[in-house]
Amino acid sequence: MADPIVQEIKEKIDIAEVIGEIVPLCRAGVNLKGLCPFHNEKTPSFMVSRERGLWRCFGCSEGGDIFAFLQKHEGLSFPEVLKILAEKTGVKLPERREFKKEIYDRETETREELLQINELAARFYHEALLRSKSGEVAREYLKNRGLNDATVKKWQLGFAPDDWHQLETFFVKKGFSKEKLIEAGLLVRGTGGQVYDRFRFRITFPLIDSYGRVVGFTSRTLSTDPKEGKYVNSPETAIYHKGRLLYGFYYAKKAIREKGAAIVVEGNVDVLSSHQAGVENVVASSGTALTSEQLNLISRFTKNLVFAFDTDKAGLTATRRGLELALSQGFNIQIVKLPGAKDPDELIRQDPKLWEQAITTAPNFLDFSFDLLFANIKANDKDKLRGAAKEYLAIVGLINDPIARAQEARRISQKLEVPIETILDYFKNLKKASTGVSGPTPVADRRQTKNRRSLLEERILGISLVNPALHQVLGEVLIPSDFSTVAAAADSVINKKGIAAEQLSYLEFLGEEELNRMKEDYPDEERIEKVFRGLCSQLKELSIKEQMKNLERVIAEKEVQGQAVELEELRTHFNELSNSLSLITRK
Q: What are the residue ranges of zinc fingers typed CHC2-type (predicted)?
């Protein structure tokens, strides 16, 4: 690994700024804290040290530097994070061949090659749109949709020629194999074995990930042939996962943070029109139901959602599905009404101010749902009223706030002219039967990633490093061999030897936070020492129990072998350990 380069990046990067783009952080003494992105929690236990360049969650025990954070949170390889952070800090990377081979495994090489192919394809399509004679029809289409040259350039919109092999020929001339292009999703192998371009006679929309990299394409046909699918998308690949990406998110995330809300629309053109009109906190689900991964992406920047799906039946269904999932993940939701328009693009083309006004006046999802379900139902049509009420109560049942539920129960009781108790009873039965809506799958408890002993060892060493008064207690109770996962560090700390700078920094960061927590609970030094001694005793107990377990196995083996002398020594040692354990457990 090119350690000097990694170190240079760490020195130049502001870890709090990078993590702060993903996790809202607030000051906590010299450090910053927020809700951990790796497990569900209500009280912040995720700490970031700008001074040390480290992060740590005291709830699930994950931690490390900025490289570890991005690798874990974004699912990126080390070389990918290295490249992203090098670009961010202006650090020049050496040629790949100068890195150690183990950094670039086969999977990483594949991902890099697919990214390169998609980037080249985006340029090919973009140039075909701007300069080719056959691209005239595409240019005219985009002009008629009201998209200007600046938008076309910024979003790298393109044109796939009406040719079965033009893209294939372009890449083969550059030395790329057809198999790799099939893997990238740009070529398709037919049933007869023939290979051809996936996108033909289409407007192409590059799909860009959170870091501005082209990972795939969606496209709209320019053909009038009804047999042609209106939309054709890239298949899932090693770099593109449909449910994890929101169209426009890369360009919208800054505005989402600034505005404090994300507007979710259905179509790509809705996004383009809105950004062009100056409303930039807009992303698209690209015609699919919102997924947990997409909502997690938004939740890094805001918990306020505004749905602006199409007003047709499919759009209303998408609104309902997105509503259920977003509520289960704790979002505040408003729903835009599109007066006299089927989608945001149409409304914007009428007048951009109408779009801004629709967003500003968007009702919360309860008011929207109530108005929608009870619209055009006459007061004497009891059957339809009851049907609408059941649908509405199913939506209200998704709310966790009991006060809000009670308020909506009163609204329905007044609408149906029935006692509120009847509605509340219906809620109870609804809860028992379940609406069939499930919340997000709970994140696995990350406490399992490190066992009790590992956590204990790190806490003890960290605390002793930042509080010299407790170092003596450490030496009285424990010896280096009592530590397993950080044995070398323990030997260095207990015997006051040198310790690796990076490990020292991490343990001190951990120790400072642990000690601060102890001081909040126990203001006097005597009580803190007693608690720390208790932690040391816990580790001693674990160490002795492990030694006894190992001895039991060895004794059993010696008994079979009939080695009496060794057996006597082993049993004596076992009894000594047992007596030591009794002393600890009696304290």
A: 36-60
